[in-house]
Amino acid sequence: GWLTCWNLKTGQLVQRVRAHNGRLNALALDSSGCRCMTGGQDRKAKLWSLPASTPGMGRTTSAAIGSPTQAGFAAAVPGGGGGLIGCLALELELSGHGVEHADTGEVLDVALSSDGVLGCSVSNDMKAKVWDLDQQACVHTLRGHTGWVVSVKFIGSTHTLVTASHDGTARVWDAWTGDSLATLIGHDGRLNAVSCSSDGRRVVTCSDDQTARVWETFDYTCIGVLRGHTAWVNDVVLSRSGSQAVTISGDGTARVWETKTNKCRHVLQGHSDDVTCVVMTSRARFVLTGSVDGTAQVWDLAADDVKSVDVHDGKVVSLVACADGSHAASIGSDGCLRLWSLATGACLSNQAGHAAAPRALLMVNDCSRAFSSAGDRSIVAWDLQTGAPSICLPAKQGSRTKSTHVSADGSTAVLLLFDSSIAIYDARSGQLQRQLMQRGDRDKQRVHSGGVNLVLLSRDGSR
Asked: CB neighbours of 108 closer than 8 A, spacing ≥ 6?
């Protein structure tokens, strides 16, 4: 719940105040850099005066930083100097969320209009509240969402705002009248964030359905769907003109998009976990991303080496390497096996084999083949000379795969399901050889007193 102000010219801490009781969930700055608005777990939104800058020494002098539990966020304050005068001061404390239900009301996001006259807070009480900051009063409570309202932005320099909700929709509102102007429908999962271009022409929403959608504010129609992430999309930022967007995802990547063509220009890879926050500089030259992995990374979008590299479209599940050190194979959550040259690092082959995310990859002794298994009970044998799948045991309905093993000579495969059934296959032909335990046999045969967790085969597959 702490709010911290930093001098970006010197890197020194200016002031740190306890802003909220509990998490500080949201932070927004007005365009002049004079005030900021915060929202917290304590059901309150607060308006703060920021330290003034001394003239003559720079363009951006301070930053206000909030500290929620997983990842911090910051916003730079435009100003003219290298020194700061005054301190953070509380102007307003805005309450009203969660009055109907005691277990709701946490403020999840806040926004300020470009002229600093209006503010908006959104909450898990499924409502948005519009505040007249001069009159120090709530002028409208915006109702219509049927899920948590998690993100809000004012569109350009207008008093029109857009809210995003876990109900899978975004809604556009006239903040002065409280009227609903449009409902943006199209996502197949809950929405996580919304962003608007500075010129007010485009809105982008991002969702758990692994996509972001671009909307034209002229008539609020969807003009593009940004597809490519393999996990939920956490947030999105737009360039001033709205021509570029950067999305961040639970797949550990950020992606740079051309919103006119909906094409991905770059995949920014370097984080090892969920990417949770993103900032783009005003000229769209640099992007800063922050992750659950504890790192922040700065990306130069104009650099020659920022490019989409030949990697899995998702997380790498398993790696195996040949004993002679010539090549290695990787399998990813995209269901593909990639064959790599260890001498050059080049990808020699990329072949699809699984519809569901694989769980394991095993190599036989002579390095001629590898076997992978997925949760849908499919097993694929791969020819490691070509990288192509040679045999595939098709996916089946029923219990999911719990454990798989292949004998060292590559002759036999064993498959254990979560219902404790065990099947033996000929790994060369893919034919079922025998069923050691069928569904329900564990309790009948009393072979195991509990669930079966692991299966292993001898080197020759005889035991």
From this structure: 25, 26, 39, 122, 123, 124, 148, 149, 150, 151
Q: Are 168 and 195 in contact (CB under 8 A)?
A: no
Residue 375 Cα to chain centre, angstroms:
23
> What pTM was estimated for this model as a whole?
0.65
The encoded tokens of residue 318 equal 């398993």
Across 21-123, where does the E strand assignment appear?
24-29, 35-40, 44-49, 52-53, 60-66, 73-78, 84-85, 89-95, 107-112, 118-123
pLDDT digit string (tens) for 13-65?
888 899 999 999 999 988 877 889 999 999 999 999 887 653 433 334 445 45
Q: Report CA-CA distances (Å) from 134 to 110, 131, 158, 173, 220.
A: 17, 9, 17, 20, 30
**Rounded Cα gap, residues 452 and 440, in angstroms:** 12
Chain segment 331-343, per-residue pLDDT in tens:
888 788 888 887 7
- Cα-based distances in Å from 81 to 8, 9, 149, 258: 10, 8, 38, 35
CA angle 304, 305, 309 (to 5 degrees): 130
Is residue 97 within a helix (H) or strand (E), and if so which, with residue range? none
